Amino acid sequence: MASGMEQFASSVSVGVFRKAKDLQKRILFTLLALIICRLGTYVPLPGINPQVIAEFLKQNAGGIIGLIDTFSGGAVGRMTMFALGIVPYISSSIVVQLMTSVFPTFEALKKEGEVGRKKLGLYTRYGTIMMAAVQAFGIAAGLEHLSGSGGPAVTIPGFFFRLMTVLTLTGSTMFLVWVGDQITSRGLGNGTSVIIYAGIVANLPSAIFRTLALGRQQSLSYPVILLIFLGIIGVLYFVVHMESSQRHVPIQYPKRQVTRGGPAVAQNTHLPLKINSAGVMPPIFASSLIMFPATILTFISMSENSWLRVASNLFARDRLPYMISTVILIIYFAYFYTALMFDPKETADNLRKSGSYIPGIRPGQQTADYVDYLLTRLTVVGSVYLAAVCVLPEFVVTKMSLPFYLGGTSILIVVSVTIETISQVQSHLMAHQYEGLIRKVRSKGGL
Q: Which of 24, 202, 309, 447 is the most exposed place for a label (fewest CB within 10 A)?
């Protein structure tokens, strides 16, 4: 009986999917946009020597360059037009969102609704252009001082090379921002996260093959490699479990008469509060904030005794200052983004207006305080979980010289975006199914 019901449900879902033309268009649009993004990661900057860039990345694969290459989908290793990726946009978003909490003018814009959001989005794009230009100029200046066994990295250095690099990298970043907006509005949603997700997933097969190659080169024994993959599976299971975990707060609605002449019945439901309400954004924010100065420092020519060199070495990925900074930033952004996305006072007001309440809690301010108390406790667990998943596996990855695509941050992004995308698809299918039922009822004269 159960298997028959499952087959029936799956056949209904497949049938609904075939009829959901809008969902098919959204999926195809998202795939096309991601293909364009991937093609851009193979178009190299004009006037550079790819052999020197590849040699430089191999020498610095265990540092911040490996992380930047992960978020750009391998574009940094090839030094292509999408080398900056979408990181400047994320950094600018952090700055603008912080300003909404500090400056009353930006806070007022946040409360103005759609008009205010458009203005904040415009400021975010202006900030993206500035940050992308600064990082692009730092990369251009650093490339001019970079050389390897194949000669200098730049064939014809000078003003025109720097100008061309700044315009190309900045324009490419803004193009990715536009593509992300299109995926959000016309695709499956979460455009920024989906672009980063696509870059990580596209390089996962090569990361697995490179890990297996370490066994053939006898850098790692095969039992150790087996333990590494078992550990990755364990981390995957843990992340899926934590991302799906929720605290159900009971909600009771006022009594309603279900049947004519029958007794009034109280309806009960629940308010779902996720353990990780902030999602994947805290580790992305933390990594982007660390990568902004590190991108410039990596390409700047520094003497061995300069304080910039000392600071750059201290914040290498396997050093304690980097890990402590990452943990602090992840915890901070977990609280910040949770407070940004979930307003307990607004939730309490909505419950009060609908006449519903939490059993044992008075409506109004007491409900808001109770929800805020629960959310704070859940965020403690969620932020510690995020920090542990992002820092501990990547420490092992760095020590064993494994590809960063197998690190904790990459796994978290892949799992979180996959779950969100599946939820988006299911919501579109349910909406289409309800629309079909309504049309059938109207055709029969029921409405």
A: 447
